[in-house]
Amino acid sequence: MVKIGVLVSGGGTNLQALLDAQKRGEIPDGEISLVIASRKKAYALERARMAGVPALALPRRDYEKTADYDAALLTALQQAGVELVVLAGFLCVLGEKMLKGYEGRIVNVHPSLIPAFCGDGFYGLHVHEAALRRGVKVTGATVHLVNEVTDGGPILLQKAVEVLPNDTPESLQKRVMEQAEWVLLPQAVSMLCQKIEKEKHQ
Q1: What mean pLDDT, rounded, does the chain reach?
Q2: Which pTM value belongs to this model?
Q3: Contact yes or no for 83/3 (Cβ under 8 A)
Q4: How far, in Å, are 26, 133, 141, 155, 173 from residue 162 at the CA level?
Q5: Is 54 helix (H, G, I), strand (E, B) or coil?
Q6: Which of 10, 39, 54, 189 is 20 to 30 Å from 166 by CA-CA measure?
Q7: Would you call 110 a catalytic residue per the annotation?
């Protein structure tokens, strides 16, 4: 089984989608073995504990430099034997050590159809506000591998979601999560776990 580490910053709805998918047997080659939150009060920590998954808070504000935080993250993940890292609403930028330590094994879900509405500053509701301002008729979500460019890594999966005439950023965010993010992320994680398992047995 591939050990999965999930990095979170807030409520953990994408984490919950992964936990639910795992419970349904949809991630047969992987197991969520650690959840790390960048904020002590992140509700995602509670979700992990309720699911019996080891969880710890590693507050970003406790570290002056990005490199120090990066090193602490890497150490915590490696000590737990994590082989695949999932960013599930993680609002901290990963540094060089993490990117090198888990090259090709860090996956992120972004609430737009990349290359639209992505890159620095595009996160959370900002993405949906920008989509509505632009007047697009279709948006969606993208799961991609993480590299040094914000939202710039190779795309694994995408799913389109219709924008409705009376949408608000909040209603659009909810629909994108329910129809795309929560569907794609477990699929991508399952695919990557299968790939890592194969590589281990080659």
Answers
A1: 96
A2: 0.95
A3: yes
A4: 26, 15, 11, 20, 12
A5: coil
A6: 10
A7: yes
